[in-house]
Design goal:
The complex is a heterodimer.
Chain A: E1 8-11, H1 12-23, E2 27-30, H2 37-49, E3 53-56, H3 60-72, E4 77-81, H4 83-88, H5 90-99, E5 103-109, H6 126-131, E6 140-142, H7 147-164, E7 167-173, H8 174-178, E8 180-183, E9 229-231, H9 245-257, E10 270-272, E11 279-282, H10 285-300, E12 305-309, E13 312-314, H11 318-326, E14 330-335, H12 342-349, E15 355-359, H13 368-378
Parallel strand pairs in A: 2-3, 2-4, 4-5, 5-7, 6-7, 11-12, 11-14, 14-15
Antiparallel strand pairs in A: 1-8, 6-13, 10-12
Helix pairs in contact in A: 1-2, 1-7, 3-5, 10-13
Chain B: H1 3-6, H2 24-38, E1 45-49, H3 57-60, E2 64-67, H4 73-83, E3 88-94, H5 95-101, H6 103-112, E4 117-122, E5 125-126, E6 132-133, H7 157-164, E7 168-173, H8 177-189, E8 194-199, H9 203-207, H10 215-225, E9 226-228, H11 229-232, H12 237-240, E10 244-251, H13 257-271
Classes of the chains: A alpha/beta, B alpha/beta.
């Protein structure tokens, strides 16, 4: 039995570290913040042992900047933070999107706004993760509900970042990050690891403009001899700044469309007992666990309740939601915020289905009993 | 362009976007001459710049170049250097870029003594945005945001870098180009954090508002107000008022971060054990 096939008791943040290392992480920069700190603490010891670099930077802005810098040289780079730090990282996140630099940002959400409650669970960064940086931009946000899933989704986050040349946000909540569960990690060989597209031409002769038609262009890395230019200014297909409207229009359209709307289904949302359900509980992250329990309790009482658990939050898995709405299901969205994702469900349902909410921001998990109570109210 | 430096430029990106009389081109020339003198492999030179007039220099240079966000050039450079230590990293910043929004990153890069060569184009003003006061605008000088003259004291950036732990610090002016090139050569050869401040003229946004005359007058002002560090050591504070002290201002030795990190990796791999 290898260390991988033995069940291990592991915290969500620890599983994130294991997943990142399995995905090929070799650069981490971060700044201490509850409830994400265990990720940095663990990597401080693990990364140099693996030949990688761990850096504690002077703040979160420096952290995301160093991560992007490292990725420009070809490193697989990550940072981890919580809401207040994630707010500071919006500047760098936008740069990473605009310059198309793969990297992973882990945001272990806590109650906000501002300092809020550092140790209390919340899911209030759903919209910040989507729209926190300025300007229209594509984004991929994925959210795990269990420790085992933290591991697999961390690997997926790197793979998606590399495949699409974009920052990917792993949006956790304090419950999943600090919860301990027994997990069996897959053998490293069983994982599919994706690496960014690289130029196939020899050094010195790479012109990204030759790939102008491709949504995701090969990325020449610093030090490899291609002598490329990278900028956060609007730029043309060669990477150099331009403000010509016809060029900016083409490039910004490509940037915003390179992650297709169907990417919400890359990791399909989990649908449980939805076929015969009248009411579909819709929840993600730690809240989905309480919703699952509530669904079982409801079923025991003869109520036809199902569960829809989005794994990719952004892009919204619209096909699954629209399908349920068209089938006449009613949605009960449960989240530790005041309806940030519920409004997305309403948008996609587009009047075809009733959307109810159970929204609370108190620093406590929403319990199965509360959800069951709300199910009875709307049933 | 001089043939010995032409090979370092992306000539198709020229002419540059700077105003007539701007000192940035002179400073860029000084940098490229230093890179030529150092004999560096073009494929192993990385230019990292912030935001502002000076930052646009990156796009003109034929190396790997990254034009980052405002104030963060040193933080990006820290990631680049640690991830790929064999790269020769030059960091180009403006005075507002480096000393205001980027001030925190500056002192920490200096504290870490990471092997970067920082070049600060100090034109005493935010030029790109039209002439606002920066932390390097001399006290009493006018700017759009200080119409009657700034009330604040200005930073001595070299003293700040030295105090924060930089192991090589120097200052030149756009007039003293050979000194500038020499300092950049020394800065790059210093295995650690080096900062070279260069006083350069912004006739458009600073000189005009402060009645400094034509660009040539501003260069003459630099010549007349610069005092070499060796001479300055024998002058009192009264004599040094309104003077710019130029030359290699500070040199020290300290462990360099990327070297220490590579050693740590080596030790952990050989020694194994204690972090298992």
């Amino acid at each position: 039995m290898t260390e991988y096939t033995q069940p291990r008791l592991m915290q969500g943040n620890e599983a994130c570290v294991e997943g990142a290392l399995a995905a090929g992480l070799n650069f981490f920069a971060g700044y201490p913040i509850t409830p994400s700190t265990e990720i940095a603490e663990s990597l401080a010891g693990r990364l140099p042992k693996a030949g990688g670099v761990f850096m504690q930077m002077e703040d979160e802005i420096a952290s995301i900047s160093a991560v992007i810098g490292a990725s420009l040289t070809g490193a697989k780079a990550m940072t981890a933070t919580s809401g207040p730090g994630f707010s500071l990282m919006q500047e760098g996140l936008g740069y990473g999107v605009m310059a198309e630099v793969p990297c992973v940002l882990v945001n272990v959400q806590r109650l906000g706004p501002s300092t809020g409650i550092a140790t209390a669970p919340a899911q209030g960064d759903v919209m910040q993760s989507r729209w926190g940086t300025h300007g229209d931009h594509p984004v991929i946000v994925i959210t795990p509900s269990s420790v085992a899933e933290v591991y697999t989704l961390t690997v997926q986050a790197f793979n998606l970042a590399e495949r699409y040349r974009t920052p990917v946000i792993l949006l956790m909540d304090e419950v999943v990050a600090h919860m301990r569960e027994s997990v069996v990690l897959p053998e490293p060989g069983q994982l599919q690891i994706v690496n960014r597209p690289r130029p196939e031409t020899p050094p010195g002769v790479y012109n990204p403009a030759e790939h102008a038609g491709r949504p995701v262009r090969p990325m020449a890395c610093f030090g490899d001899g291609y002598r490329v230019h990278v900028t956060g200014l609007a730029h043309d297909a060669t990477g150099f700044a331009t403000s010509r409207p016809e060029v900016v229009n083409v490039e910004m359209t490509r940037l915003n469309e390179k992650i297709p709307a169907t990417a919400g289904e890359i990791i399909p949302p989990e649908k449980i007992c939805c076929d015969d359900a009248d009411i579909v509980l819709t929840a993600f992250g730690g809240t989905a666990r309480a919703a699952m329990r509530a669904m079982r309790l409801a079923r025991r009482d003869g109520l036809k309740v199902g569960l829809l658990r989005p794994v990719v939050l952004w892009p919204v898995p619209e096909r699954a939601i629209a399908g349920l709405a068209a089938a006449g299901k009613r949605f009960l969205v449960v989240e530790m915020n005041f309806g940030q994702y519920g409004r997305e469900i309403e948008r996609v349902a587009a009047g075809r289905a009733a959307v109810y909410g159970l929204y609370r921001v108190s620093g406590e998990l929403i319990t199965p009993a509360e959800i069951l109570g709300r199910i009875r109210e709307v049933a | 362009m001089l043939p010995e430096i032409e090979g370092f430029f992306r000539t198709d990106k020229l002419p540059h976007m700077w105003c007539p009389g701007c000192g940035n081109g002179i400073v860029l020339h000084g940098l490229v001459k230093a890179i030529a003198e150092l004999g560096l492999d073009k494929n192993k030179v990385t230019i990292v710049s912030g935001i502002g007039c000076s930052a646009r220099a990156a796009a003109y240079l034929d190396f790997d170049t990254v034009h980052t966000t405002h104030g963060r050039a040193l933080a990006f450079a820290t990631g680049i250097k640690l991830a790929r230590p064999e790269l020769n990293v030059f960091v180009l910043m403006g005075d507002g870029d480096c000393s205001a929004i980027g001030g925190n990153h500056l002192i920490h890069a200096a504290r870490r003594n990471i092997d970067l060569t920082a070049l600060v184009f100090n034109n005493s003003i935010y030029g790109m945005t039209g002439g606002q006061a920066s932390p390097m605008t001399p006290s009493g000088k006018r700017a759009t945001t200080a119409p009657t003259g700034t009330l604040e004291r200005s930073f001595d950036l070299c003293e700040l870098a030295r105090a924060a732990g930089a192991t090589m610090v120097g200052r030149a002016t756009a007039f003293h180009t050979r000194l500038l090139t020499g300092l950049l050569v020394k800065g790059h050869r210093n295995k650690g954090f080096s900062l070279v401040e260069v006083i350069t003229q912004c006739p458009t946004a600073y000189g005009r508002r402060n009645k400094m005359g034509q660009p040539a007058d501003m260069l003459r002002w630099q010549k007349e107000h610069a005092v070499d560090i060796k001479a300055a050591r024998n002058m009192d504070s009264g004599q040094l008022q309104d003077k710019i002290i130029i030359g290699e201002l500070h040199r020290s030795t300290a462990p360099e971060l990327t070297t220490r990190y590579r050693q740590l990796i080596q030790e952990l791999r050989e020694g194994g054990g204690f972090l298992d």
